[in-house]
Amino acid sequence: MRNNRNDAFVKIEKNAESLESYRDFPLIFIMKDIVIEHEYYSEMYVGILDCVEGHRIYLKDTFEIDEGNSRYLGNEFKKWDLTREDSTINEFPHIKLEFIDSIYASKLKLTLEQAWNAWSDPRDLLKTLNPKYQKIQETFSKLDKTFSENSEPIILNENAEQISLKEIHKIESVDSKPISLIAVTRHQYDISKFSNYENYIKNYRGASSRIYYGLWSDGGKTEYDVLYAIPTDDYEDVLNHLNAHDQINQKTAQSMALVIDSNGKYKIIRNSI
Fold first, then answer.
1. CATH code reported for the domain at 5-127
2. Start and end residues for every CATH 2.30.30.100 domain found in the chain
3. Are 8 and 123 in contact (CB under 8 A)?
4. DSSP letter (8 states) at residue 33
């Protein structure tokens, strides 16, 4: 496998709006190679995004990397509550947006340590995955490069092989009626955790329940999902399923379901809650 960061990380636009969507995610900051009076930055920072205010970036649990050496800075770049801290402080240490060359986020949801290890060697993302999950990761990473919110959802079967929406309908439908695909994941990118969701579906739906893996858009971000099918597009039934899995997703209900008809055409049912 090639040591290619492009397969593991996505480059983020250098503006506050783009960064805000990655709040509480670990990010990689590559700094510009320039010398400015009264300003000094290391070559690179790895930290959890705390918040962005104009050109000021605040981080939690930050590491700095300079000339191959790393040093833990802790919460040195964190935005503290001024009402609880020293009232004489009007600005906390931060990273200035204009001094950043590029910013990267992992395509998977990782811990800070995992993000840094993956940046150092992208193959680390797959070292703990079994061959099936490696195949899913490689397939999604490849297809994700050209995927947009207008792209047709891409679904893999339990063997990590791509399957058409029409084929799924044929397998799951009763009397050729529409079916609905329900995800049990929520903003999930860490494929190493897929086995937990698979076990959850088997316990929830029964051991014979078929599992699918989806690459699709929630209208904003692209998600990697673990899904199951129900043989109906009844709105109330679909909503019941969308709201049934909050216990595995930090009390967050699913936002939408994918309805498929006998011709493989699809539509989205969105959760009203």
1. 2.30.30.100
2. 5-127
3. no
4. S
Contact between 39 and 97 (Cβ < 8 Å): no
> 49 with 103: CB under 8 angstroms?
no
Identify the three-state secondary structure at position 257. strand
Cβ neighbourhood burial of 207 (10 Å; 0-12, 13-18, 19+): exposed
Is a pLDDT exceeding 90 seen at residue 262?
yes
In the block, residue with structure tokens 């993000």: 115
H-assigned helices in 62-193: 112-120, 124-127, 131-144, 165-172
* Spatial contact of 95 and 29, defined as CB atoms under 8 Å apart: yes
Other C-beta atoms closer than 10 Å to the C-beta of 197 total 22
Q: What is the rounded distance in angstroms from the CA atom of residue 200 to the CA atom of residue 245?
A: 9
CA–CA distance, 155 with 106 (Å, rounded to integer): 22
- Exposed (0-12), middle (13-18) or buried (19+): which is 27, by Cβ within 10 Å? buried
Residue 199 has pLDDT above 60, yes or no: yes
Instruction: Report residue 187's pLDDT band, with 50, 70 and 90 as the boundaries.
Output: low
Q: Which residue has the tokens 């900051």?
A: 29
Q: pLDDT for 99-147, tens place per residue? A: 899 999 887 667 787 788 778 776 665 555 577 887 888 888 788 878 8
112: tokens are 């800070």
The length of the chain in residues reads 273
Q: What is the pLDDT of residue 10?
A: 85
Amino acid in position 226: V
What is the structure's pLDDT at 183?
92
Could you give the CA distance from residue 116 to residue 123 in angstroms, rounded to a whole number? 12
Q: What is the pTM of this model?
A: 0.57
